Amino acid sequence: MLDILPTSGPRNDFAVLATMFAYTSAEIAAAFEYLDRKERRTDPPGEFDHRGCFFAAERTIAVRFCRAPSARWPYPQLLAARTADHCAELFEVDEAKNVKRLALAFKRFRVGAPFADLRRLLTPGIRARQARA
Description:
It is a single chain. It contains eight helices and two strands; from the N terminus they run ααββαααααα. It has a two-stranded antiparallel ribbon with strand order 1-2. The chain has helices spanning 10-20, 25-38, 61-64, 76-80, 84-90, 96-110, 115-122, 126-132, and strands at 46-48, 54-56. β1 and β2 form a beta hairpin. By secondary structure, it is mainly α.
């Protein structure tokens, strides 16, 4: 698997911290993607039709089972493609809750939360993750 993590900056610092708690690079990358989409820094790939309805190009379970776009509700696939479940499936991560947990921890890491708070947030499930590796 290609290394999909950043090589410098605060994302790299957080990735190093998260790997200490047995998170995989796919989980960390999915969390970064989820946070970027959630905070509207990036948009999911897709197209708008002539009525302004968005159709996602990434066909995951979250996108397939959401409401069909219509003139009255044009963005359900756009919203579904911004969820942690969708990003977890894109990066082939089994547990979407790990993606959510990592995204929350990174938000706190950016604002300078103490290590004890991050450790308390990242520690649950460490034995199961270590057993997987």
